[in-house]
Amino acid sequence: MKNSKIFVTQPSLPDLKELIPYLEKIWQSKIISNNGPFHEQLEIELSKYLNVPYISLVSNGTIGLIVALNALKVKGEVITTPYTFVATAHSLMWNKIKPIFVDIDPSTLNLDPKKIEAAITKDTTAIMPVHVYGNPCDVDTIETIAKRNGLKVIYDASHAFDVKCHCGSILKHGDLSVLSFHATKVFNTFEGGAIISHDKDMKTRIDQLKNFGFAGETSVQQFGINGKMNEFSSALGLLQLKKVNKDIEKRKKIDEAYRNYLKDIPGIRCHAYHNMEKGNYSYFAIFVDENYPLNRDQLYQKLKDNEIYGRRYFYPLVTDFQIYKDSGFFLDNDFPIAKRISSQVICLPIFSEMSIQNTKFISSIIANT
Fold it and tell me: Which CATH architecture fits 243-367?
């Protein structure tokens, strides 16, 4: 039985005593930004942990997307999904790129490859898929489409820290992948993110772009931005790496408990994983259909009345925000699958320190209507 409010997530943090020695080193060095020793160490350690060739730390995932698009010199139109957080589309707008939204696959909830090719025009230069809830996109088909049409691929991998598909790390796909280390994520650095690249020249370009375009003390070669991760976040990241495997294992047990408690409730469907060799259990999404006695918003309110604060990720769709409706940047006004899923989804609370008892309590509220 719960004894306090249960929020959709809670950041996993190390013991404060473990952080103090890192802070003392920062105080001694007086280096708090500009590629300090903890920043350099975290890039090395993350590259090893994630088994990726090059990683560039950034101040947050949104800046990572903005810089990634700039690094690849993407212009014109980019095909992306309406079923995502607004940062995905906003990063295109900040680069003066026209987002072209297409519908999602009803099973994976990721960008539907079958819809991509029909949306390609002479102005299309890239595809920006999202690994929704950490569920891998159909990377092989997307790669085939991209190569056939000469397009870049930038994955919004905000949910996909250490996710593995049939061919290893999901982060090895596309021209670039962007991670978020926001406080709500499985691996967090207070705020932060990273760009995964595949060759040294691209990493150099990204590292210059995130540091105002500097290529040396007196040379500015690009119109860059201030997107560097600070030493405090980097220090926390080094500590988080020590415990992230245990955190993911705890989340996996919560995921399994939910599925067990909810499996026989008519009208409630748990999101299924596809082509996933290893997940991170960053979200637990359920969908409320017509066989359930309440509609989605009524269940959402019932949970809130019991101090259970899930989230309707992702509702509204990006394309349902007025600012995007007014833009005229999508092929049609429909997206029937994305609209249906958006009207049904609730992401239930899940975090590493959540008890199985609370999982059972939340499930009992859903079951007893």
Answer: Alpha-Beta Complex (3.90)
What is this structure's pTM? 0.96
Contact of 175 with 153, CB cutoff 8 Å: yes
Q: What is the per-residue pLDDT for 4?
A: 87
Q: How far apart are CA 25 and CA 151, in angstroms?
A: 45
The answer to whether residues 43 and 203 touch, using CB atoms and an 8 Å cutoff, is: no
Give 334's pLDDT tier (boundaries 50, 70, 90): confident
Where do you find CATH 3.90.1150.10 in the chain? 243-367
For 86-113, the pLDDT digits (tens) are: 999 999 999 999 999 999 999 999 999 9
CA dihedral over 215, 220, 221, 227, signed as positive or negative:
positive
The pLDDT score that the predictor gives to residue 249 is 98
Cβ atoms of 324 and 89 within 8 Å: the answer is yes
Three-state SS for the chain is: CCCCCEECCCCCCCCHHHHHHHHHHHHHHCCCCCCCHHHHHHHHHHHHHHCCCEEEEECCHHHHHHHHHHHCCCCCEEEECCCCCHHHHHHHHHCCCEEEECCECCCCCCECHHHHHHHCCCCEEEEECECHHHCCCCHHHHHHHHHHHCCEEEEECCCCCCCEECCEEHHHCCCEEEEECCCCCCCCCCCCEEEEECCHHHHHHHHHHCECCECCCCCECCCCCECCCCHHHHHHHHHHHHHHHHHHHHHHHHHHHHHHHHCCCCCEEECCCCCCCECCCCCEEEEECCCCCCCHHHHHHHHHHCCEECECCCCCCHHHCHHHHCCCCECCCCCHHHHHHHHHEEEECCCCCCCHHHHHHHHHHHHCC
Q: Where in the chain is the domain with CATH 3.40.640.10?
A: 16-240
Predicted local distance difference test score (pLDDT) of residue 234: 98
Looking at the domain 16-240, which fold is it?
Answer: Aspartate Aminotransferase; domain 2 (3.40.640)
Residue 356 in contact with residue 253, Cβ under 8 Å?
yes
